[in-house]
Task: inverse folding
């Protein structure tokens, strides 16, 4: 059903769109004065140069550290985030050309500007493993399709490399491998007789092996995070968790759907599904596009725990391909430019919305006055202890900025759920002491006990109240009250 349509003008407009997307979403993020927690976590974990983190494999942490440390500029993190999205767009385009003519292949990327996962979400959360998946998942799909259609040994090597890299980034990669395996069992069983298939598997395994050994060494520590996320608090969660997840998935693609619907209405094109499709290709698009989301919903239904909407966002990379493949739509120069203009309109609206939010909000997550807070806490520390602050514990969103932006870069010793990081040496904590920070007195007491289990049961913990102001970009203040406690060297 694919037609060859190549227009140099439209291709130039496509490349300009990619460049503008990169510039706009890198720039909007710079309104913040501190990086998002995800990015700060990654930089800190990257400092450890280890083969794992409390939540994920190490790739995002390594890249965060490598991007930030040479210049210590927040810009570098925002730029690398959008660079990975740009690479993802390129692979989506390359994959789309197998199923669509060139113009529709470009539009299958452009229309994703209306999917908030590629704009607002990454603009707000910065760089993390989910952003890397926006690149690796389309790349895996592209090289897998190459392998099954061209049977080129080099493609199997590339597939093994990108699968291994993706698993070294996030375990969720498995949710794309599962539908790939299902598709192969239905339509291409002979690949399981191909020696290069197993060569590809070996390459991926070798890349992932150092992290696997790290998992064994630390008793599969990151899975404590998933256990905490997936544990249901009530039977109702088994219904509400997947339902909310589904609603948020629909919300994140609403912009793309509106662009497509506007295109159909503008040019009076019928809304109907095509009967003229290649069955293996159609199942390839549907399985890789929707099976990972269905697996997420089933996990939520049976587990009933927290389902973060972001877990599903990176799997919408097939959305544009799906729309243009299954719903016949005539695309000439005027239709192409209409979709492009619509995408720019959405880009402007969303960028202004996020930019306005980051400008007016007085939130410590985006405007934490680290120099002031850490300076005051160091002064309080210095009154009791001669050595510098080496370890901080407590609520991660308060402590991790102190680690990255604080002039002494103290180590954060607790992860998101309050589990002590396994590489922290308890003897060092006893020797140097710990600064505990949290939003409440009870939180400080709880985190102190988690951070320093060696303390006597009758050890008296008396949190100290501390107040500071966060100012938005317009200079408007908001007062925050937190508490801290200094665990002295034992």
Result:
């Amino acid at each position: 059903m694919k037609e060859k349509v190549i227009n140099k003008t439209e291709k130039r407009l496509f490349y300009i769109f990619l460049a503008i997307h990169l510039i706009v979403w890198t720039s909007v993020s710079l309104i913040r004065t501190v990086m998002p927690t995800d990015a700060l976590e990654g930089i800190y974990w990257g400092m450890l140069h280890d083969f794992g983190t409390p939540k994920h494999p190490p790739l995002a942490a390594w890249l965060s550290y490598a991007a930030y440390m040479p210049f210590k500029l927040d810009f570098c993190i925002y730029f690398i985030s959008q660079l990975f999205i740009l690479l993802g767009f390129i692979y989506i385009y390359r994959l789309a050309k197998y199923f669509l003519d060139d113009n529709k292949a470009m539009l299958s990327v452009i229309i994703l500007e209306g999917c908030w996962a590629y704009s607002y979400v990454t603009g707000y959360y910065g760089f993390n493993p989910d952003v890397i998946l926006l690149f690796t998942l389309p790349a895996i799909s592209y090289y897998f399709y190459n392998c099954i259609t061209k049977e080129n040994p080099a493609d199997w090597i590339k597939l093994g490399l990108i699968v291994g890299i993706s698993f070294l980034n996030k375990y969720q990669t498995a949710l794309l491998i599962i539908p790939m395996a299902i598709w192969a069992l239905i339509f291409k069983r002979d690949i399981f007789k191909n020696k290069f298939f197993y060569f590809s598997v070996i390459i991926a395994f070798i890349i992932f092996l150092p992290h696997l050994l790290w998992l064994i060494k630390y008793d599969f520590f990151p899975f404590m995070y998933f256990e905490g996320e997936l544990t249901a608090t009530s039977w109702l969660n088994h219904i509400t968790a997947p339902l909310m997840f589904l609603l948020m998935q629909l919300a994140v693609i609403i912009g793309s759907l509106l662009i497509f619907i506007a295109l159909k209405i503008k040019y009076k094109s019928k809304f109907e599904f095509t009967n003229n499709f290649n069955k293996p290709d159609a199942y390839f698009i549907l399985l890789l596009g929707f099976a990972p989301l269905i697996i997420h919903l089933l996990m939520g239904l049976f587990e009933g725990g927290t389902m973060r909407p972001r877990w599903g966002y990176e799997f919408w990379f097939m959305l544009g391909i799906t729309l243009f493949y299954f719903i016949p739509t005539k695309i000439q120069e005027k239709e192409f430019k209409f979709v492009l203009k619509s995408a720019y309109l959405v880009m402007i609206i969303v960028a202004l919305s996020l930019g306005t939010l980051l400008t007016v909000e007085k939130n410590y997550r985006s405007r934490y006055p680290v120099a002031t807070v850490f300076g005051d806490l160091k002064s309080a520390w210095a009154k009791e202890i001669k050595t510098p602050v080496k370890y901080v514990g407590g609520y991660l969103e308060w402590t991790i900025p102190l680690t990255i932006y604080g002039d002494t870069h103290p180590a954060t010793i607790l992860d998101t759920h309050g589990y002590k990081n396994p590489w922290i040496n308890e003897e060092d904590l006893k020797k140097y002491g710990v600064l505990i920070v949290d939003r409440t007195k009870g939180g400080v007491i709880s985190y102190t006990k988690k951070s320093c289990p060696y303390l006597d049961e009758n050890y008296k913990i008396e949190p100290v109240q501390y107040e500071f102001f966060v100012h938005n970009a317009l200079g408007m203040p908001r007062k925050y009250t937190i508490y801290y406690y200094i665990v002295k060297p034992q």
